[in-house]
Specification:
single chain, 111 residues, mainly alpha, 4 helices, 86% helix, 0% strand
Length: 111
């Protein structure tokens, strides 16, 4: 939801590709907060919050590249996605979600 909200707020100003890059960063911040406080609450990372977020961001880039690649391909090649960017966000998010979960689970919040 954060991803799509930021994308739609910025796409008129920045276009669908630059706006998507910023919406992805906003989504990373939101998911880190959710993962830190809910999903992995009992698993400490042994890092300061700043270091933990930066590590999380770096780890999420792998899934983010998959996510952005799928989104971009669909926006470029599918007119319906160009008209409804949320479809590209959903497809990209699904594609990158498993990569992101696995890196968070096994590399950052492993204790």
């Amino acid at each position: 939801m954060v991803d799509t909200a930021v994308l739609y707020a910025l796409q008129g100003i920045m276009g669908p590709f630059y706006a998507r890059a910023l919406s992805f960063l906003a989504a990373v911040l939101a998911t880190w907060l959710i993962n830190r406080n809910l999903a992995f609450r009992g698993r400490a990372s042994a890092l300061s919050r700043k270091s933990e977020f930066l590590s999380y961001l770096v780890l999420m880039l792998a899934g983010g590249l998959v996510n952005y690649g799928v989104y971009s391909a669909l926006v470029l090649w599918q007119p319906v996605v160009r008209q409804h960017l949320v479809l590209g966000v959903a497809a990209g998010s699904l594609a990158g979600m498993s990569v992101n979960f696995l890196t968070a689970r096994y590399l950052l919040f492993r204790k």
